[in-house]
Amino acid sequence: VTGGFPLRTGTAPLPVALRGVFWLTDQQDSSAMMTFGGPSNDGGGCSTGQLLDDRCKVRCAGDRSWAEASKAPFFKVDLIYHFVFDDSSNPTKGQMYPEWAVVSSLVMSIEHLMDFEMELISDEAYPGSVVWRRDTAF
Q: What is the dihedral of CA 35, 98, 84, 129, to 10 degrees?
């Protein structure tokens, strides 16, 4: 494992809080790591390695952008997360909207059905690390 393989490392022009590779916690045998790094070969504006205004998209089954911790077959649907942040240069909060491309590019934006929020926090358990807390509500 190096800084650019197997996952791309998020670098400038991404904001500092979105650079690097992120461990995903409490996912059981599902998602393990992800990156906002790019550019990738994903197409559709996914994993470009930069924010467009305050937004970006990451394809979970994409080109070195997401890693699984499961022995089961990888994604059965083309899942893309749309990230919307509160600030394009210094984000501290974000909202995630899933898109299942198999369902006619349906982007779930009805937050009372499925709500994925992110907040940049300081966590003494991970000194020197960038930590985003994700709150999920159904």
A: -30
Residue 121 to residues 74, 91, 124, Cα–Cα distance (Å): 30, 11, 10
- pTM of this structure: 0.84
Is 138:125 a contact under the CB 8 Å cutoff? no
Query: Strand, helix or coil at 79?
Result: strand
pLDDT tens per residue, range 77-90: 778 889 999 999 99
If we measure between CA atoms, which residue out of 51, 137, 62 comes closest to residue 101?
A: 62
CA distance 66 to 6: 10
What is residue 19's DSSP assignment?
A: -
Report d(CA 107, CA 128) in Å as an integer: 35
Among residues 88, 51, 83, which one has the least CA distance to residue 66?
83
